[in-house]
Amino acid sequence: MTKSYDIIQGPIITEKTIKLKEDFNKYTFKVNKTANKIEIKNAVEEIFKVKVLSVNTVNVLPKRARVGQYIGFKPAYKKAIVKLADGDKIAAFEI
Predict the structure, then answer these.
(1) How far is CA 52 from CA 5, 29, 70, 95, in A?
(2) Adjacency order of strands within the sheet including 26-31
(3) pTM for the whole thing?
(4) Residue ranges of domains in the chain
(5) 3-state DSSP call for residue 87?
(6) DSSP string, 55-85
(7) Residue 72: C-alpha distances to residues 21, 62, 69 (Å)
(8) How many CB atoms lie within 10 A of CB 95?
(9) Nearest alpha-carbon partner for 25 in 59, 52, 48
């Protein structure tokens, strides 16, 4: 695998991210925790062949989870919100 595929771990598809995609042409990805905005921008442009205008990142904290009597945590991850140029779209988000 190339470096770009190590940075972008997968799309995040929720009601909120679908609304962002429809209204503002912003796509949300789960990314490597050590990746910076420039690396994320280059990876998205290389993988999906689109023009990226901006990248915002969020470190999502671990959430407490409970299964029966056992208490643990869901893992933390880094989320990137990528704004694309007008006319560009990513087919991986189409449902």
Answers:
(1) 17, 13, 43, 22
(2) 8-11, 26-31, 77-84, 52-60
(3) 0.89
(4) 3-86
(5) coil
(6) EEEEEEPPEEEEETTEEEEEPPEEEEEEEEP
(7) 33, 10, 10
(8) 4
(9) 52
The CATH number that domain 3-86 falls under is 3.30.70.330
Q: Which of 31, 33, 22 is nearest to 4 (CA)?
A: 31
Segment 14-46, tens digit of pLDDT: 999 999 999 999 999 999 999 999 999 999 999
| Cβ–Cβ under 8 Å, residues 56 and 41 | no
Radius of gyration of the chain (CA): 15
Residue matched to tokens 């009601």: 15
Contacts of 44 (CB under 8 A, 6+ apart): 8, 27, 29, 50, 52, 55, 82
Q: What is the distance between the terminal CA atoms of the chain, rounded to a whole angstrom? A: 26
The token duo for 35 is 């990746």
